[in-house]
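check these tokens.
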Amino acid sequence: MITVLLADDENLIRDAVAALLGLTEDLEVIAQAASGPEALAAAAKHRPDVAVLDLQMPGLDGIETARRLATEQPGCGIVIVTSHGRPGYLKSALSAGVRGFVPKTTSAKTLAEVIRTVAAGGRYVDSDLAADAIAAGESPLSAREADVLELAAEGAEVEEIAERTHLSVGTVRNYLSSATSKIGAANRHDAIAVARRHGWI
């Protein structure tokens, strides 16, 4: 039996995934969490074979949670499920020790196969996400910088970005400023245009 930890701050999605995985004969969801810190605590208590983490979570995002989990429990395989298929996230996730990276559009059957692959020591990266990462080239932006820049591109004001990313207003401003500087743009609007053209957001 492969034991699984599910971490997602959207309760409905987490419960649905848990129910679907529960229909398999060889997978057992032994713990659930709604944030990065909760996931780390649950992993320490239950020691699952595989942790399935949402990329966007309060407290700690999926990548930072994965990085800490890989250090604290190197025997635990890590899968990230995301609605943000940005190339920079994939590269950051792999460098953090993640062995599975799939979009939230993935079927329950495929997710179960990914969990089995990772539990056996293998890797699985969604082919479309991998192709996008290769085509986009190396992004100069950190995952967080890309995240706030993408929200700014959607028209969100600094205060709204701070609320949606669980960051302070000052931190959001710093990320926007550093993103603009790294891209070599004159202002935030130019930075958004360049980042979109290169597939970085």
